[in-house]
Write a structure and sequence with these properties.
The complex is a heterodimer of chains A (212) and B (650). Chain A has 212 residues and is α+β, with helices and mostly antiparallel strands. Chain A has helices at 4-19, 26-33, 37-50, 64-82, 86-96, 102-110, 114-125, 155-163, 197-200, and strands spanning 53-56, 59-62, 134-136, 145-151, 171-177, 184-188, 191-195, 203-207. Chain A has nine helices and eight strands. In chain A, the strands form two sheets. Chain A has a six-stranded antiparallel β-sheet. A two-stranded antiparallel sheet of chain A has the order 1-2. In chain A, strand 6 and strand 7 form a beta hairpin. Chain A is globular. Chain B has 650 residues and is α/β, with parallel strands linked by helices. Chain B folds into three domains: 6-166, Rossmann fold, CATH 3.40.50; 181-249, Orthogonal Bundle (Helix Hairpins); 296-488 and 511-649, no CATH class. Chain B is 66% helix and 7% strand. Chain B has 27 helices and nine strands. Chain B has helices spanning 19-27, 71-83, 97-110, 121-126, 133-140, 155-166, 181-197, 207-215, 219-226, 231-249, 253-272, 282-291, 296-342, 345-383, 385-399, 407-413, 417-423, 430-440, 446-460, 462-486, 506-541, 543-558, 566-571, 577-586, 594-606, 611-621, 623-648, and strands spanning 6-13, 44-50, 53-59, 87-93, 114-119, 129-131, 144-146, 273-275, 495-497. In chain B, a hairpin with a 2-residue loop joins strand 2 and strand 3. Chain B is elongated. Classes of the chains: A alpha+beta (212), B alpha/beta (650). Chain A binds chain B through residues 111, 115-116, 119, 122-123, 125-126, 155-165, 167-170, 176-183, 185, 189-199, 202, and chain B through 64-65, 67, 69, 95-99, 102, 217, 219, 246-247, 250-252, 254-255, 258-259, 262, 289, 292-295, 387, 390-392, 394-395, 398, 403-404, 428, 490, 493-500. Strand 7 (191-195) of chain A pairs antiparallel with strand 9 (495-497) of chain B. The complex binds guanosine-5'-triphosphate (GTP) and magnesium ion. Magnesium ion (MG) is lined by residues 19-20, 31, 39-40, 59 of chain B.
C-alpha cells in the first residue's frame, strides 16, 4: 500500500513536469524521484483510482483534486519553515492546531493581504521541482549559498527586499548567523545586508550545491 | 540692477553614499555625517554661488527606490516629481554600483535632468573595483563625474556639469528604460487608459512613469487615482491587465519589474566595472568578524560602552581640575576685587556669584564632560560600529517590540535626546517610532551624564555612576516591554544595510564635536547665566527659603533631599545640566550624603525631558503623546527616587 507521503511526492513531480510543459510519464517520474519504476507505477495507479491523476494515452495528468492536495502539502511545508523561531514558534504552531482553511490562516495570522496571497500561490504554483527542495535563508549555514525562489509576506516586505536586490533568481551568501535565532547577515549583489531572523524565515531559496 | 538666476539642485541617492558630505562641501554647512544608513531624515537646504549664479542645494534623506515604502521615500519622490528641481544630482557609491543603480534607473524613468556623482572611488579602489566612468556615462546617457567627497575631489567638476545640464548646454541622451515585450505591451495598454480617463494626472507626471507605477501597484498613486471620478473603473481595468502578465510570468508584477531592472543594471555593470585586484581590506573583515560575533561581539559591545564612559569621566575630571584652578582660584577672586572698586556690594554679588559663577560652573562642570563625549560618539558614528551594535541587539530589541535599528537612535540619545527623537524615523511604522521615542528620552543624554558623572561619579566613584547607567538600561528595557504590551501590533523585522568599516576622518569628528558643543554653548550658556542670576536674586531676597519650604514635603520628606534642591530641579526643565550647576550655587555639593547624591542624579536622569526634547516630541508624535511621555516620566522619577531613598537608608 503506497503511503500518502509518497503519493504527494509523485503528484508534485507530475505537476512540476507539467509546469515545464512536458509530458509526465512513469519513466520520467521514477528517474526524478529515484524510485523503482514498479513502485511508481503502483502509486500512479492508486492515484488514478483515488481521482488525483487522469490517464490519457500513456501519459498522466494531474486532476483538480490532485492539485488541491499538493497545494495543501506545499503550504504546510512553507508554514512549518516560517514557524521555526525557537520554542515559542513551535508552541504557537501547536496551539494553532491543524490549519483547515489556509487562505484564512495566511490572511489573519500572517498578515498577507489578498494581493500578496495570490502572489504567493502563483509562486508555489510555478515552482520547478518539489517544495522540499526549497528552504529559507534561516536554514543555511555560514558560507552557504542559495538562489531566491520566492518571499512570503506583505506587499511592503516583498517590495523592500526586492529593491535591496533580493529578487527571484538572485544569489545570496550567508556571511554570518547570530546565535539564538538572531539576525543573519547575507551578501547580495555585493552588499552586506542584515536580516532579522523572522524576515529570513520568509525568504525561500534553493540551496546552491557546492562545487566539490 | 542685474537679476541673478537661481537654480535648484537636489541630492538624491541611497543611504550612506556621501550625500551629506557633498552637501557640506557645496554649501559650507555642517549636516551630520557618519557611517550608518539613515542619518539625514529631513531635507536640508543650503545656498552657494557659482560663477554668476545663485544655487539652492537640497540634501534629501537616503532612499533605495522611488516606490512608497517609507515616509522618506514619499517625501523625496513628491519633491522630485512635483517641485521639479532644475537638476538632480544622483550620488552613487562606486563600491556598490549594482544596488545603487537601481535608484538611478528609477530616476531615469522620471525623466528629469540629471547628473551622476560616482562617489567613494577611493574606497572602491581599495576593494579592487575599477569603474570606467566614460562607459558608464555612455550606458546611462548622463554625465558621470567621479568624486571623493571627503577630500573634495571632483566636486567642482560636478558643479560645473550640473550647471551645464541646468542650462541645457550639455546635450543628454538619457537611457530609455525598456522592459520585456509582454510588459511593454501591458504598459502601452495602461498608458492608453491613463491618457483617456486620468488625463488630469498628466500635469504632474508623465504617462510613461504613471503606467510603470500603476503596473507596480504603487500605493500612493493608486490612492490618488481612487479619489478621481473615473479612478475606480480605470484601476479595475489596469488590475486585469496586470494579472494577465502575472499569470504568464508567475511572479508579482512589482517583482517582475525589479528583476527586469536588475537585469538591465547587470548589463551596465558588466560593461563598465572591472575587479582589477583582490580586495585589500583584510583588516576590515577581521573587525566585522569580531564585532558582530555571537559571543565576542557582546563582550566588545560592553567594553566599548564602559570604555566610553570611563574615558569621558577621566578625561573630563582632568579638564575640570585644570579649569577650576584657573577660573575659580585665579580669575574669579581677581574679578570680584576689581568690581568691588566700582560697584556696590549687592550688584557685585549678583554679577560674580550669579552670572559669572554660572558661566564658570558651565565651563567647569558641563564642558569637560561634553567635549570628550562628542568626540567619542563621533568616532563611533564614523567608524561604522553602530550598525554592528544594532545587529547584535536585534534579538533584545524584539523583546520590546522594536528591532535592531532602534539601537542606533538609543545610542545617539546618549549624546542628545533631540536628534535621537527625530532619528526614530529610521523605524518603519508609527507604532515603532513611538516606542522608540518613549525609550530615547529616558536615555541619559550628555547633559544628564554631566550630572551623573559630576556628582555621583566625582564624589562616589565611577563604579557607582556606571551602576546608575546599568540601572537605567534595565529600567528602559522593562518600561519598553510594558509599552510594547499595551500597544498591540507585530514588530517589523530587521532589514538593514551593514556599511563597511572605515577609518574615522579626524576632520569630520572634530567638526561634528564642534557643531554639537556649539549648540550646547549657544543654547545652554544663556540659560545657565539667567538661571544663576535668578537663583542669586532669590538668595539675596530670601525667597529661596520660602520656595524650599513649599516643596519640602515632596523634596525632603519623600525624596530625602535638602529642601533647596527642589529649585534646581525645576530649572532643570530648561536644560538638565542646570540642576547640578544651580545646586552647586545653592549648597556645597560635598555636603550631600551619598544617598542624596544618588537620588538627585536618579531623579534628574528620569524626571522630565528638557524643553527642547519636549518640542521635538511634540513635532514627531503630537501633543497627546508628548504630554503622556512627559507626565509618565515625572511620575516615574518621583516614584523611583522615593523608593531608592528608602532602600538606601535601610
Ligand atoms: N572613503 C570615502 N568615504 C566617504 C566618501 N564620501 C563619504 N564618505 C563617508 O561615507 C559615510 C557616509 O557619508 P554621509 O554623507 O553621511 O552619507 P549620506 O548619504 O548623507 O547618508 P544618509 O544621510 O544616512 O542617507 C561617512 O562616513 C563619510 O565619511 C568618499 O568619497 N570616500
Ligand atoms: Mg545624509
Amino acid at each position: 500500500m503506497p503511503s500518502q507521503n509518497k503519493m504527494i511526492e509523485v503528484l508534485e513531480t507530475v505537476k512540476s513536469i507539467e509546469a515545464k510543459k512536458e509530458k509526465p510519464t512513469a519513466e520520467k517520474i521514477s528517474k526524478e524521484l529515484k524510485l523503482p519504476a514498479s513502485e511508481v507505477n503502483e502509486i500512479m495507479e492508486k492515484g488514478v483510482k483515488d481521482g488525483y491523476l487522469a490517464q490519457r494515452d500513456g501519459a498522466f495528468k494531474i486532476t483538480q483534486k490532485g492539485i488541491k492536495i499538493v497545494k495543501e502539502h506545499q503550504q504546510k511545508y512553507v508554514h512549518e519553515k516560517m514557524h521555526q523561531i525557537g520554542l515559542i514558534g513551535r508552541i504557537t504552531r501547536f496551539l494553532e492546531g491543524k490549519v483547515i482553511n489556509w487562505k484564512k490562516h495566511w490572511r489573519e495570522r500572517h498578515g498577507l493581504d489578498n494581493h500578496s496571497l495570490q502572489k504567493f500561490y502563483n509562486a508555489i504554483d510555478s515552482l520547478k521541482g518539489r517544495i522540499e527542495e526549497t528552504s529559507t535563508i534561516a536554514d543555511l549555514d555560514t558560507g552557504e549559498e542559495g538562489k531566491v525562489t520566492f518571499i512570503v509576506g506583505g506587499r511592503g516586505l516583498i517590495r523592500r527586499l526586492s529593491e535591496m536586490g533580493l529578487t527571484p533568481g538572485t544569489k545570496v551568501k550567508i556571511v554570518r548567523n547570530a546565535p539564538f535565532h538572531g539576525p543573519i547577515e547575507i551578501k547580495v549583489r555585493g552588499v552586506s545586508l542584515a536580516l532579522g531572523y523572522g524576515v529570513a524565515t520568509k525568504v525561500f531559496i534553493k540551496k546552491v550545491k557546492e562545487a566539490n | 540692477m542685474e537679476t541673478r538666476q537661481t537654480l535648484t539642485f537636489a541630492l538624491a541617492g541611497n543611504a550612506n553614499v556621501g550625500k551629506s558630505v557633498i552637501f557640506n562641501q557645496l554649501t559650507g554647512l555642517n549636516q551630520i555625517v557618519g557611517n550608518w544608513p539613515g542619518k539625514t531624515v529631513e531635507r536640508a537646504e543650503g545656498k552657494l554661488r557659482f560663477k554668476d549664479k545663485d544655487i539652492k542645494v537640497l540634501d534629501l534623506p537616503g532612499i533605495y527606490s522611488l516606490s512608497t515604502f517609507t515616509i522618506e521615500e514619499i517625501v523625496a519622490r513628491e519633491y522630485i516629481a512635483i517641485e521639479k528641481p532644475d537638476v538632480i544630482i544622483n550620488i552613487i557609491d562606486a563600491a556598490f554600483l549594482e544596488r545603487n543603480l537601481y535608484l538611478t534607473l528609477q530616476l531615469l524613468e522620471l525623466d528629469v535632468p540629471m547628473v551622476v556623482a560616482l562617489n567613494q572611488i577611493d574606497f572602491a579602489a581599495k576593494k579592487g573595483i575599477k569603474i570606467d566612468e566614460k562607459k558608464l556615462s555612455m550606458a546611462l546617457g548622463l554625465p558621470v563625474i567621479p568624486t571623493v567627497a571627503i577630500t573634495g575631489k571632483g566636486i567642482n567638476e560636478l558643479l560645473e556639469a550640473a550647471v551645464q545640464v541646468a542650462e541645457g548646454r550639455l546635450k543628454l541622451k538619457p537611457l530609455k528604460v525598456r522592459y520585456g515585450r509582454e510588459i511593454e505591451e501591458a504598459l502601452e495598454k495602461i498608458k492608453g487608459i491613463i491618457e483617456e480617463e486620468l488625463s488630469g494626472l498628466l500635469k504632474i507626471y508623465t504617462s510613461r512613469w504613471l503606467s510603470v507605477k500603476l503596473f507596480e501597484k504603487d500605493e500612493e498613486i493608486t490612492r490618488k487615482i481612487n479619489l478621481m471620478p473615473q479612478g475606480k473603473e480605470a484601476l479595475r481595468k489596469v488590475a486585469e491587465i496586470i494579472s494577465e502578465v502575472e499569470k504568464v510570468q508567475g511572479e508579482p508584477s512589482e517583482v517582475i519589474l525589479a528583476s527586469e531592472r536588475y537585469g538591465i543594471i547587470r548589463r551596465i555593470v558588466n560593461e563598465s566595472m572591472e575587479i582589477v585586484s583582490p580586495p585589500k581590506i583584510k583588516l576590515e573583515e577581521k573587525l566585522s568578524e569580531i564585532t558582530a560575533h555571537g559571543i565576542i561581539g557582546y563582550l566588545v559591545l560592553i567594553c566599548v560602552i564602559t570604555t566610553m564612559f570611563t574615558a569621558i569621566f577621566y578625561g573630563g575630571n582632568m579638564l575640570i581640575e585644570g579649569l577650576e584652578y584657573v577660573l575659580i582660584d585665579l580669575a574669579l577672586p581677581q574679578t570680584r576685587r576689581f568690581l568691588l572698586n566700582l560697584l556696590p556690594e549687592a550688584i557685585t554679588s549678583i554679577i560674580c556669584d550669579g552670572a559669572l559663577m554660572g558661566i564658570v560652573a558651565g565651563v567647569t562642570i558641563a564642558l569637560p564632560y561634553i567635549i570628550p563625549f562628542h568626540l567619542i560618539l563621533g568616532i563611533l558614528e564614523d567608524s561604522g560600529y553602530l550598525p554592528r551594535a544594532a545587529y547584535l541587539m536585534d534579538n533584545l530589541m524584539h523583546k520590546v517590540g522594536l528591532h535592531g535599528k532602534a539601537f542606533i537612535p538609543l545610542i545617539v540619545g546618549y549624546g542628545c535626546s533631540v536628534p535621537a527623537c527625530i532619528g526614530c524615523r529610521i523605524m518603519e511604522t508609527d507604532r515603532e517610532r513611538f516606542i522608540c521615542g518613549f525609550e530615547v528620552v529616558l536615555i541619559p543624554c550628555a547633559a544628564r551624564t554631566v550630572v551623573i558623572l559630576g556628582l555621583v561619579g566625582f564624589y562616589l566613584g565611577i563604579h557607582v555612576a556606571l551602576t546608575l547607567y546599568l540601572f537605567n538600561v534595565v529600567l528602559i528595557f522593562l518600561l519598553g516591554k510594558l509599552v510594547y504590551k499595551t500597544l498591540p501590533g507585530e514588530p517589523m523585522g530587521l532589514i538593514m544595510e551593514m556599511p563597511p568599516y572605515k577609518i574615522p576622518s579626524l576632520k569630520n569628528v572634530l567638526v561634528k564635536a564642534w557643531v554639537r558643543t556649539k549648540d550646547f554653548i549657544y543654547i545652554a550658556f544663556p540659560l545657565i547665566v539667567i538661571g544663576s542670576v535668578v537663583i542669586e536674586a532669590l538668595k539675596l531676597t530670601g525667597l529661596v527659603w520660602f520656595l524650599a519650604e513649599a516643596m519640602k514635603p515632596l523634596i525632603s520628606n519623600w525624596l530625602g533631599l535638602p529642601p533647596v534642591s527642589g529649585i534646581p530641579l525645576i530649572f532643570g526643565v530648561l536644560r538638565k545640566e542646570l540642576t547640578l550647576i544651580l545646586l552647586s550655587e545653592l549648597i556645597k555639593l560635598a555636603s550631600l550624603t551619598p544617598t542624596q547624591m544618588i537620588v538627585f542624579s536618579l531623579v534628574t536622569m528620569i524626571y522630565f525631558p528638557c524643553l527642547a526634547t519636549i518640542a521635538a516630541l511634540l513635532r514627531e508624535f503630537g501633543w497627546k503623546k508628548a504630554l503622556g511621555i512627559a507626565l509618565t516620566d515625572i511620575f516615574l522619577a518621583i516614584l523611583i527616587g522615593g523608593i531608592t531613598y528608602r532602600l538606601l537608608s535601610l
